[in-house]
Amino acid sequence: MQCGAACFLVEIEVNGQKQTKQVKARTPAAARKTVRTEYGEGTQIISVRRGESNGAH
To answer: Comparing C-alpha atoms, which of 2, 3, 22 is closest to residue 11?
Structure first.
């Protein structure tokens, strides 16, 4: 995890199913990029919200 990273909740649609994934990133754009890298360019991203971080600094 990078310095200044936050937790984001990314709501996506994969194969017709809505899922919420927790992503650690510095910005919402970086969270989107992480999801696209993991699930592919065809993944529909519905929303990106700042979530609660469960870990220590």
So the answer is: 22
Spatial distance between the Cα atoms of 26 and 1, rounded to a whole number of angstroms? 9
Token representation of residue 14: 């994969």
Is this model's pTM higher than 0.85 or not?
no
| Domain 6-50 annotated CATH 3.10.20 | yes
Q: In the chain, where does DSSP find H-type helix?
A: 28-39
Q: In 3D, which of 3, 7, 2, 5 has the Cα closest to residue 51?
A: 7
What is the per-residue pLDDT for 8?
A: 95
What's the Cα-to-Cα distance from 55 to each of 1, 19, 30, rounded to whole Å?
11, 22, 19
Q: How far is CA 22 from the centre of its chain?
A: 5
